[in-house]
Amino acid sequence: MKKLLLTVSALLLASTAAAADPALPKAPTGNVTLEVWSWVPGLDKTVKVFEKQYPNIKVHVTNLGGGPQTYTKLQTTLKAGTGAPDVAQIEYGFVPAFVDTGGLLDLSKMGANNYKKYFVPWTWGQVSPDGKAVFAIPQDTGPFAMVYRDDLLKKYGVAVPKTWAEYAKAAATVNTKSGGKVKLGNFYATYAPWFMALAWADGGQFFKRDGDSWVQTLNNPSARKVLNYWNGLIKKGQVSTLQAFTADYWNAAGAGQVATNMEAAWGPGGYAGSMKDKSAGKWRAADLPQWTAGSFKSGNWGGSSNVVTAQSKNKEAAYLFSLWLNLSQNAITQNWVNGGLFPASDAGLDLAVLHDKTKNPSKFFGSQDISSVYAKASRGVNVNFQWAPWFPFANDNFNKQMDLMIKGKLTPDQALDAWQAETMAEAKKQGYTVK
């Protein structure tokens, strides 16, 4: 009887999950084969679920590894007018550069705005800056929270900082009590989106389309506030500047030389995978410190979307696949389990599989339900944030200015002003009207 009840319960849960999926467009008739470019691990497994549900649509996935090589190849095919896939994965910050090629389909003409309500509001703003045209379907996100070593904060008698003022005091305390051996945090000087996420949480705006022209303010007040704050901690030796995703960082974090960091929702998976048993169970996640006590805001680093190219000969199937991949609970579950993608869909944030404390990354984080922390963060991200087509240059130029600042050759304000001026010059060189 017990087995029977469990089976019935499972079936009811399955039917409930299926019923909760939004109604998607009807599949086109006839046999179709889609070419999809993506770097999501295990996407081939997710595709099998789609093909079972839509047997007349076959999906061929090509993993180009992401990054510059993927974007260069996609840009080349779009500009050439041939060779592009039906569906491609593009990070939010790089979508405008591809829109300007004219090679992406405006999905609003296929009814995409009918699905806006199913996504966390800020993610839709990333793919539909003017609120009308829709150039992609949001896929995954990287809302910001703070990860920290619970054992180290307790060792040095420091409470989990809730504000940036408390964080600065904690940094001084940890530095003093550890004799300078432990840094409270780490500044990622070679990742502009990490820095921009912190300013984003303060309402900072870096780019804004103004009709046919653009407004760029890389040296906006929030950016100045954030950079001056972190530079102060760097100069005092209270935070490190180890490069993200390197052995130097993982070794330091695992050895207890870095007590906290500001990480996107996909970051904890890297901690569990890169440090494995080293410091396992000692980490926790908490809300991003706030500038004003009692408020709650967050920013975002990373995340991507799925575009349908104008070259696609199977636009209806490509559009259906892009929606299904990011709204089907089955697909979202597969993408989380196989690829660690933190969902852009609102319902996806509440899926039980994200909150399983017995599996990584939550298991690595002391069996804390860290997805709840990040779900709250996602819902606290400012909607009004835009990127510009020349962001790839801004991204690279940031590294140059931060290097000069850390070496003491530029003040934080001078570094931001140089970033603004040199990126502005490049944007105009590329033919954009920018002020």
Textual characterization of the structure:
- With 435 residues, the chain is of the alpha/beta class.
- The chain folds into two domains: 22-142 and 301-355, Periplasmic binding protein-like II (D-Maltodextrin-Binding Protein, domain 2, 3-Layer(aba) Sandwich), CATH 3.40.190; 149-299 and 382-429, Periplasmic binding protein-like II (D-Maltodextrin-Binding Protein, domain 2, 3-Layer(aba) Sandwich).
- The protein has helices spanning 2-20, 43-53, 68-80, 95-99, 121-127, 150-155, 164-177, 192-200, 221-235, 247-254, 267-275, 315-327, 329-339, 370-378, 391-406, 412-429; strands spanning 32-37, 57-62, 87-91, 137-149, 185-186, 207-210, 213-216, 239-240, 260-264, 283-286, 300-308.
- The strands form three sheets. Strands 1, 2, 3, 4, 9, 10 and 11 form a seven-stranded mixed β-sheet that branches. Strands 5-8 form a two-stranded parallel ribbon.
- The chain starts with a helix and ends in a 6-residue tail after the last helix.
- The model is unreliable at 1-19 (pLDDT under 50).
